[in-house]
TrEMBL record:
Keywords: Kinase, Transferase. It comes from the Bacteria. This is Sugar kinase. Signal peptide: none annotated. One of its GO terms (molecular function) is kinase activity. It holds the Pfam family ROK. The lineage of its organism: Bacteria, Bacillati, Bacillota, Bacilli, Lactobacillales.
Length: 289
C-alpha cells in the first residue's frame, strides 16, 4: 500500500506517491492554483491513479489536528478556515496535516533514523523550525514549539529585533538591496557578488552568519539536541553551511563558558523535505512508525 504525500507551497504543489519506507514511486508538480476548486481538482486527478492507504499534507499555517482546520494566515488564503478532514472524507482514508516547517524537521527522522533529539531551523523570508524530542515532534502547549524566529537577539526599540528580522535570507537580501539600490538581488546573486569581492555582499553575509550563530548557540544550550539541521533553499549552498559552522566555532572558542560546539548539517531531503516529513507525520499519527 502507498501514501499520498502532498506539499502545498506558495509557488507550487507537490504530489508524491510514496511507500511507507519512504520510496517515491511517482511525483507530480503544478504551480499553486489560484483557488480551492483548482487545487482540489489537481489532487483528485492524482488520487485517482492509485489505491492509497492515506493522505498526508504539509501546509503553511497552524494546523488544528482535532478539526483539520488550517488556522492563521499564509500566502494561500483559500486553504484556511474549513476542515480538510470533511473536505476529503469521500476518499475514505486517514488524512493528516502538519505545518510545513514541522514536516521539514520530521523528514530528518527518515534520513537519520539513529537520531532521537534534533532541532531543525528553516531559513527563508523569515525563520521557522521544528523540535524533535525522543523521536517525536514537540508542538508545545500553544503549538509554538520550534518557532525559533521569535527568539529575541537584541533588545526591542521601535521595532522588534527577533531572529527572523536579523538572520533570515529575507533580511540578507533586503539589506543588500537597500545599500546598493539594486532590487535585482536575491540570495544567489548576493553570493555570486561576494565571490567577486563586493564588500556590501561580503559584510551582509558575515552579519547573517553572526546572527545565525547566536541563535544556534541559544538552541543548543536550551535543548541540547544531537544535531541542528538547516532547511530552506539557502541550506543547499555548502558554502553557507560551512560559513555558519565556522562562525559558531569562532564564538565558542572565544568564550570559555561554552563547552559544546553545535553540529550543524543541511536537511537531507532539501527541496523535497516537506513530502517526506508529511509521510513521517502520517505514519506516526497512524501508529505505523
Amino acid at each position: 500500500m502507498v501514501i499520498a504525500c502532498i506539499d502545498i507551497g506558495g509557488t507550487s504543489v507537490k504530489f508524491a506517491k510514496m511507500t511507507k519506507e519512504g520510496a517515491v514511486l511517482e511525483k507530480e508538480t503544478c504551480p499553486t492554483p489560484e483557488n480551492l476548486e483548482a487545487l482540489l481538482a489537481f489532487l483528485d486527478a492524482c488520487l485517482a491513479k492509485a489505491d492509497y492507504e492515506g493522505i498526508a499534507f504539509s501546509v503553511p499555517g497552524a494546523v488544528n489536528r482535532e478539526t483539520g482546520v488550517i488556522e492563521g494566515i499564509s500566502a494561500i488564503p483559500y486553504i484556511h478556515g474549513f476542515s480538510w478532514y470533511d473536505k476529503l472524507a469521500t476518499y475514505g482514508v486517514p488524512v493528516t496535516l502538519e505545518n510545513d516547517a514541522n514536516c521539514v524537521g520530521l523528514s530528518e527522522l527518515l534520513s537519520r533514523p539513529h537520531l532521537q533529539n534534533l532541532a531543525c531551523v528553516v531559513i527563508g523570508t523569515g525563520i521557522g523550525g521544528a523540535i524533535i524530542l525522543n523521536g517525536k515532534l514537540h508542538r508545545g502547549r500553544h503549538n509554538l514549539g520550534g518557532e525559533f524566529g521569535y527568539m529575541t537577539l537584541r533588545e526591542p526599540d521601535q521595532e522588534l529585533h527577533n531572529w527572523s528580522t536579523l538572520a533570515s535570507t529575507g533580511k540578507l537580501v533586503r539589506t543588500v538591496r537597500e545599500q546598493t539600490g539594486d532590487v535585482s538581488y536575491d540570495g544567489r546573486k548576493v553570493y555570486q557578488e561576494a565571490h567577486l569581492g563586493n564588500p556590501i555582499c561580503l559584510e551582509s553575509i558575515e552579519q547573517m552568519y553572526h546572527h545565525l550563530a547566536l541563535g544556534i548557540l541559544n538552541i543548543q544550550y536550551s535543548l541540547d539536541p544531537d544535531v541542528i539541521s538547516i532547511g530552506g533553499s539557502i541550506s543547499q549552498n555548502e558554502e553557507f553551511i560551512a560559513g555558519v559552522q565556522k562562525k559558531v566555532e569562532e564564538i565558542v572558542n572565544r568564550y570559555p563558558e561554552y563547552s559544546i560546539v553545535p553540529k550543524i548539517v543541511a536537511c537531507h531531503y532539501q527541496e523535497d523535505a516537506n513530502v517526506y516529513g508529511a509521510l513521517v507525520n502520517w505514519l506516526q499519527e497512524e501508529q505505523q512508525w
